[in-house]
Fold:
Amino acid sequence: MLALMGFALIIVFMILLSMKKLSPFVGLIVVASLFGLVAAFVFNDAGVVGSFKSVFQWIREGVFYQFDQAGNKVVAGTVNTAALLLFAIIYFSLMLNAGMFDPLCIGLLKSVKGDPLKITVVTALLSSVVALDGDGTTTVLIVTAAVLTLYKKMNMKMTYLAMLIVIPNSILNFMPWGGPLARVLSVVNLEVTELFPLLMPGVAAAMVYVFVIAYVMGMSERKRLGYVKGGKEVISALEIEAIIDEMRNRDLELKRPKLFYVNVTLSLLIMLALITGVGNGAILFMVGTAVALMINYPKLKDQAARLRDNGGDAMGPVVVIFAAGALMGILNGSGMSTAIADNMIKWIPESWGGHIPFLSAFVALPGLIFLSNDAYYFGILPVISPIAYGFGATPIQMGAAAMIGQALHFASPLVAFIYILIDRCEISFGEYAKEFVKWAWPIFFIYLGMAVLTGLLPISV
Structure:
């Protein structure tokens, strides 16, 4: 009975989310709570009061913490992941406000000199840098503001521009503050320092592939446009300077050019500490945010304004992570998760059990195209993971497999910022999706190959 209820909870949640009947935040809490109440009343002998208390207890455990059966070890809920996401988004938003990325953008634009190959490589590099903030919308707006006029004036393909923005973004979405990793960490109950560094070889290899794409696209455009090095300029130096001036003067009152090296040093220190595991990611970005505010905006009113404006961008993904704690807590506390795993283990041939982490990556690939991140990571992953653990898999392996499926996630019509991208690039969703799949499918095998080679994802456990 509990297993059937668990399946029903997950299916109802995914259907409502896919049909856009409920937001992820509302769906995670309301659907889970309703099913939790049913489970508590049916399987709890403590009466009505006890049943209500049970549901709230389960939610508390999912969001904050719970003790193991021996009453000793504390198992963290989703609050740690939510804190990481909150302060990381605010921190990178502050760096954008302060203009830390401006010198790079301006330097790259000055270097292109009307060469299509240089433009595609610069676009890929610019997108890669800006995408580090973890927000797709920000990446689209900043990169198109910098290079869209160049592409139009030179009659370059808008589909190429879209790909060189979205593909680096999809890869760097692996960053702890990007969203997907935060969701995965909350489900498999890992710290960011336990999984994130192990994913980096695959990310690094995929980023090399990004610049291979940029080179191929640039050479193709050189040929199509008849560009000859040293020949007639397609766009003048004055036109490029006008584009740079517009970027330089945007939000001028927030920029802190004299603090550029200070901000770069602070950012590098945080990243180094995060990768080497010096401290908890949430604490590192919390302290970094405070230091960045103090240095760049010493006046109290300016600090309040930056927190208010940038905090609004962070609240959407953060509240979803908190809400996921309700779903996870109810699934685990009610026994639904255990019942689902016990039943599904019976369906898997013994000879397949050792391959579950590897096979999970192939399940995640279509799952993350047809479902949102929330639906897959909070609906499917909690069901698959306990089954895999029963065959000897580890949370790290299951977390890695779930992240590998991100390779083609941006082909999904459920990714909101894609509609901003196609609007800015003036292409249709059909054109975008066709082009994205064409260029992005090798990334899945890059991730998978690197995970196998490094031992992160063994073919058999």
Strands lie at 65-67, 74-76. The longest strand covers residues 65-67. The chain has 20 helices and two strands. Residues 421 and 429 are 10 Å apart (CA to CA).
